[in-house]
Amino acid sequence: MKKNLFYLFVFALSCTFLISCNDDDDYNVDPKTLIAEISGTYLGDLVVTLDGFQVGQSTQQIYVTEDGEASVKLELKDFAITIGDATIAVGDIVVPGITLAGDQSKVELKETNVVINHPELKELQVKVTGVITGETADLHIVVYAAELKQNIDVTFNGERTSKEVKDYAMEVAAWYARTELTVTGVDIEAKYPVDGIEVTYVGFNKIGIKSFSLSCYANDKTVTRSISIASANLLVGADGDTSIGTVKQTLTHKTYGDAELELSGKFVDGVLTLNMTVTQGETKAVYVYTGAKKLTGYAIEKMTIDNSVVVVQPEFGDITTTAGSVVFFVKPEATEDQLKSLVPQFEISAGAKITLNNQEYVAGTPVDFTTGQKFVVQAESGKSKRTYTVTYQKLTSFDFKSDLNSWETKNETGAQYRIYEEPANGWATSNEGVAWIKLYPALYGPEAPYAVTQSDDAKSGKAARLETLNTTGQAGMGGFIPAIPVVTSGSLFTGSFKVNISNTLKSTLFGYPCFKQPVAFKGSYKYTPGTTYYYCAQPADKANEVVEDKTKTDLPAMNAVLYEVDSYAFEYLDGTNLLTSDKIVAIASVDGKAQAQYTDFNVSFKFLDNKTFDSTKKYKLAIVCSSSKDGDKFSGAPGSVLLLDDLEVTF
Question: What range(s) does the Lipocalin-like domain occupy (predicted)?
Fold first, then answer.
């Protein structure tokens, strides 16, 4: 058969129908009655023929649901078709807007003709018809490719197994603790799996089975083979029970040789029965595994603390398979006694339990949150657990204003070359990044200056001096140590700097909570561009490679950005998305240039289209300044100097 014809069929099914033409809507009864009569889940055979030759057959479920006042929608979820030994995944097939005719005893899905224009195959003509008689659905799809002048016929014949359209895979996904395992056909001890089998959710009525070991017979002895099922159909029976569609696969092993597996099963009242046949040559082992459902969830789904001292309820972040972080915010004046008497309330995964200090936590018990507390959630299966570290922060109102006269020393107890200064009271710089570069003295010497320093060249008092540095550059190593840039700009911002070794631009965590609508960003600056501008074409992975661009002169960057967050504790903009994130609500950007003397600026915030300040939402505000406008792309002119003084956002 022509391979193109199969792909044509797949494409035709997976495309969105663009143009639809239906006959006049003639109903013997109210269409709502017909819709109610045929809605549900149908299980049956899907057969594909080409010029009269059958090229594929598979068991599929089709879902019929209401689609407006007088039509239905047909869906095949996670559709796949098998031709020979090859299984091709197509995806969800959705056919909306099909009108009906007939009566309750026989409902006609009226012919729908659609035309699909494909860039390569040109015009495809598709015709869909069908009849549902009682509980039986007969559907017919014809795809005609004008250029190939051939028809592909697709037929479906199936029975309604449920009047519901429901995803049962969510319900059966769980750990099934072993209750019994029998094996016939071979004389071995069915030792493995010892404890259980885990069924996972894959998609709509699709499940998987995580890898497990099975005791098998090979080479005249008992061995173990690893079995895992990536995806299997979950079939819904008329009695409401669910079964696993038959899966066949080859179990390969260099030592024991290959064997053929056939697997099916069913779920009844929380019990999994798994039928497996393993065949190797003349040897056939037949297994029946039964397991009791034990849920595998082990999450804190919600945590609240009902106390007036708590102003922001617990926020979740940094969740891994074994650990999680939770932060809640309290009033600035909160006392230790108040923090010791807080009573948390938890919603956790069904079947799981939560412990504190190795004891099951009793609801309503006060917890001392003056120090971080570790709550452990264990799944009902006993196979998984996660430790949540819960801490508090005081929610203070950041001033977003600094005369830059107060500075503090960082890394005082470290090596001399790691000691630097930066503005006090919540301001951060790129100096910590420079400290890491100084680990490579051949690139940037230990005695070389930091990118951000305090300066007496100020409008009043002290000023911040930001300089773009030439840090030589070095290629990344092994995919886990990033390239060291040639151009390292000096940056000053509200927020914090935490080194991210995998992506240095994510080291800058911009912004603090903002509770009022900002009006303008103002301050004073001087700027002198460096003499030679370097352009980095691939900042993501080759920051060490630059070329001189004689057409460009460096410019400074001075921005104030208001952005929306779901979490004060864990959500930030960073060097990768400061001016591009879809979370941005408003920006005040200074059009800076070379200035020999201090120049004042006062720039109003511009709100993005369709965005406003909503006092019921959470926001952060970041002031971010750099000695090179494209320093986030590792482009700029070493020697560029930006002097800043009296920065402020007004409200």
Answer: 39-159
Q: Which residues constitute the domain of residue 433?
A: 401-510+522-558+591-600+627-650
Position 16 pLDDT exceeds 50 = no
The domain tally of the chain equals: 4
Residue pair 151/182 in contact (Cβ under 8 Å)? The answer is no
Distance CA 121, CA 309 (A): 66
Name the DSSP letter for residue 545: -
For 154-175, how does the pLDDT look when each residue is reduced to its tens digit (9 = 90+)?
A: 899 999 988 888 899 999 999 9
Q: Is the bond into 332 cis (omega within 30 degrees of 0)?
A: no
pLDDT in tens, 426-449: 999 999 999 999 999 999 999 999
Nearest to 141 by CA among 133, 150, 151: 151
Strands 310-317 and 323-330 come out as antiparallel
204 close to 169: Cβ distance less than 8 angstroms: yes
One domain, residues 477 and 361: no
The residue whose two tokens read 């497996």 is 276
Q: Residues 6 or more apart from 415 whose CB is under 8 A from it? A: none
Helix (H, G, I), strand (E, B) or coil at 170: helix
588's enclosing H/E stretch is: strand 584-589
- Does 345 map to a domain? yes
Residue 208 Cα to chain centre, angstroms: 20
Give, rounded to a whole angstrom, the gap between the first and last alpha carbons of the chain.
72
Question: CA torsion, points 336, 340, 342, 344, in degrees to nearest 10?
Answer: 130
- Output the pTM of the full model: 0.71
Same domain, 481 and 553: yes
| DSSP states of 319-369 | --SSEEEEEEEE-TT--HHHHHTB-EEEEE-TT-EEEETTEEPPTT--B--
Q: What value does the mean pLDDT of the chain take?
A: 91
* In a domain? residue 441: yes
List alpha helices for 348-462, DSSP H.
Answer: 431-437
Find out whether 196 and 294 touch, Cβ atoms under 8 Å: yes
